[in-house]
Amino acid sequence: MTREPEWSDWRVFLAVARHGSTLGAGKALRLSQSTAARRVSALEEALGVKLFERRAHGYRLTDAGAAVLDQAEALEAAALGAEARARAQARSLGGTVRITTEEVFAVTLLTPWLRELHGLHPEIRIELDCSRELRDLGAGEADVALRSTSKAQPEGLVGRVLQGDDWALYCSRDYAAQHGLPESRRDLLHHNIIGGGGGGLWRVYSAWLEEMGLLGRVTMHYDGSNGLLSGIKSGLGVGVLPCIVARADPDLLQCLRPMSQHDRKLWLLTHERVRHNPSVRLVTDFLYDKLSRHIRATDPALNPPLGEPLLRAAP
């Protein structure tokens, strides 16, 4: 079965045409003379036409060969241009990209993906900031943010919304097997509640627990959101977690519907100042693709629809 011609076949064709022999073409391309001759014959067989006249003193283009020479050279120019552009892009990649996010997102979602990103682009150094302080992208304190917010963003931030940032009460399968799965406020009055999360999260969470009459059921308090996750997974009790994280964990069971009456959205953000930096753009696009796939796999009913338009950018 005759194979289809490849760019490497045309590369040999051009070398033979320029050097007038398979010996010269082989030297130029670092191939053996027999390999160069075999590639020319294979190309002629694939096309069903003779491209060269074999003479005692070398190879000469036939009319058919001369007719395709310009197109072959255009193919060469396109291939070399693509290679040059790719190499230029590779040279422009590198340096450090700083990502800021909540620690529970960093540990459960980003860290495994960033390991994959490092394998693909080891020239990019990632700094992952899980500080509770809100990093100012405009001031250069971070380059990319995975951030939950209901507020208007400062001028110059650009990004895409992923979905509503819903949090719900979860427990581990082991906990449910031992104590039952609480499915109502009345059920929760007889269960251990894990509190904490730190900062703004605990303010919202504790207010909700107080409104539900459950604040007195808090038997363990963690300083951060990753502690909440650890405590819930270990079977200590029931606690709040982001749905984007918990829905993907088969060891976690949702107890009640997500907390309602909020308009927080999960955004992947960067700043106009760095959005065209090749490394920042690569990291942002990579994470958006991973987050999008993760959300589609765990929550098909997206709200709002994935791909909401960009935030306004600085003029």
Automatic annotation (TrEMBL):
This protein's name: LysR family transcriptional regulator
UniProt-listed InterPro entries: LysR-type_TF_proteobact-type (IPR058163), LysR_HTH_N (IPR000847), LysR_subst-bd (IPR005119), WH-like_DNA-bd_sf (IPR036388), WH_DNA-bd_sf (IPR036390)
Family named by the database record: Belongs to the LysR transcriptional regulatory family.
Start and end residues of each HTH lysR-type domain: 5-62
Keyword annotations from UniProtKB, A to Z: DNA-binding, Transcription, Transcription regulation
Entry-linked Pfam families: HTH_1, LysR_substrate
Gene3D superfamilies associated with the record: 3.40.190.290, Winged helix-like DNA-binding domain superfamily/Winged helix DNA-binding domain (1.10.10.10)
Domain of life (superkingdom): Bacteria
